[in-house]
Structure formats: C-alpha cells, structure tokens
Amino acid sequence: MTIWGKFLKFDHINRIESMEKRKVQRYFIASLGIILLVAIAALQSFTEHQKQIKGGAHMELHSNAFKQKEFIPDKYSCRGADINPELTWENVPEGTQSFALSVKDPDAPIGTFVHWLVYDIDKDARKIEENSIPGKQVKNNFGKEDYGGPCPPSGVHRYYFRLHALDIESLGKIKSMEEFDQKIDQHTIAKAELMGKFEK
Questions:
Q1: What is the pLDDT of residues 4-51, one digit of tens each?
Q2: Cβ atoms of 193 and 61 closer than 8 Å
Q3: For residue 55, is it left (φ>0), alpha (ψ between -120 and 50) or beta?
Q4: pTM for the full model?
Q5: What's residue 179's pLDDT?
Q6: Helix segments in 85-199, DSSP class H
Q7: Residue 60 CB: number of other CB atoms within 10 A?
Q8: Torsion of CA 69, 75, 81, 85, to 10 degrees
Q9: pLDDT in the model for residue 90
Q10: Most CB atoms within 10 A, among 16, 107, 135, 186?
C-alpha cells in the first residue's frame, strides 16, 4: 500500500472514532439532562410538601393516656372499660379538609389486626375526646364499628394510632377496611403516628 493509501486509511479510521466519540458524548449529555430534570422535579415536590406544613413542622399526635412507645393503660383495653383514649394533634398542614384515624396492631397472629377506623373528622378538630365517635366509622376486625381496645392473645403487641390529614372534605360511604386504606392513601397530605404497647 502506498503512503497516500495508508494516510487515507488512517484518516478514515480517525473519522469513525471521532463519530463514535461524538455519539457517546451526546448520549452522556442527554442522560445527564434527564437526571437533572428528575432531580429538579423531586426537589420541587419536596419543597411544595414542606410549604404545606405550617412553620415547617410535621403534624404530631399525642395522648394524655400514654406517651410514644409507652404501655397503654388497661382502661383502654379489653381488660378495662374498652374505650378509646383521648387524642390531640398539632401542626396541621394548610389545605386540610378533613381527618381520618386508624388504630392497628401489626403483631397479631393473623397479620395486621384493625381496631378502629374513623373518617370524615372535621377539619377544625384538634382533639378526639375519650370514649367518643368523632366521625364515620368502618367495621373493624372485631366485626363492629366502634373502637376495640388492645386484647392480644399473648406477648407484647404494638398499637399504631395514625392520624391522616386529607385533601378532601368527605370520603363518602366506605364499606370495607380495604376501601378505607385505598381512599386514605389517595388523599393523605400529612400523617402523624403514636405507638403504644400492651400485654394482656
């Protein structure tokens, strides 16, 4: 092969390598752009969520009967009066149209056991009185609508009181525990949790 032929071949190879490099660069730039857009969207979503919370604080749920991770008094269990404890909350996000409350035991032998489901609680409410019905109820795993207190067969169980701030005034007629969970997931803008323990 002549020197000129070798030069042309070398030049051809260089052009191919240069084209491949440009393709890689374009792919890298495009990928970087997508990652940047996703990051910006996530940051905007986070910022918007923070704006919903007054003062930047998270909604909190409390009870005068027990504190976080403490044992629930017998009065609020099947061993006592079996009535709901008083609950209060604060730092409610702007845009809240109603509240919903669930009380569940994830340590039950059959899986999560539902003790109480209440919804359409008034948006201006900041307290659920002891032994009261603050909204509409859904039939629980006891087969009744009213609150059913802790009543584990054995060992220490955890009971999660979860308050949901919702973006809707009414959830309509809810016929099952599954429907309650689905609608709550769709409309929750903030959530507060209080966990108490109980051993029979």
A1: 554 445 555 556 566 666 776 776 677 777 886 656 666 665 545 444
A2: yes
A3: left
A4: 0.73
A5: 98
A6: 177-187
A7: 15
A8: -50
A9: 98
A10: 135
pLDDT (tens digit per residue) in 74-121: 999 999 999 999 999 999 999 999 999 999 999 999 999 999 999 999
User: Rounded mean pLDDT of 143-150?
Assistant: 98
Q: Which residue has the tokens 């569940």?
A: 104
Q: How far apart are CA 191 and CA 149, in angstroms?
A: 22
Which residues lie closer than 8 Å to 75 by C-beta, 6 or more apart? 65, 81, 83, 85
Count of CA atoms in the C-beta half-sphere (13 A) of 138: 25
Beta bridge partners of 193: 162
Sequence letter at residue 193: E
**Are 72 and 83 within 8 A, CB to CB?**
no
List of residues 6+ apart from 143 with CB closer than 8 A = none
What phi, psi does 95 have (nearest 5°)?
95, 0
Q: How far apart are CA 23 and CA 95, in angstroms?
A: 48
DSSP state, residue 34: H
Alpha-carbon distances, residue 94 vs 88, 98, 145 (angstroms): 18, 11, 30
With a cut of 50, say whether residue 55 has pLDDT above it. no
For the record, the structure tokens of 13 come out as 């190879």
Question: Where are any strands of DSSP class E within the chain?
Answer: 60-62, 87-90, 98-105, 113-122, 127-128, 136-137, 156-166, 188-199
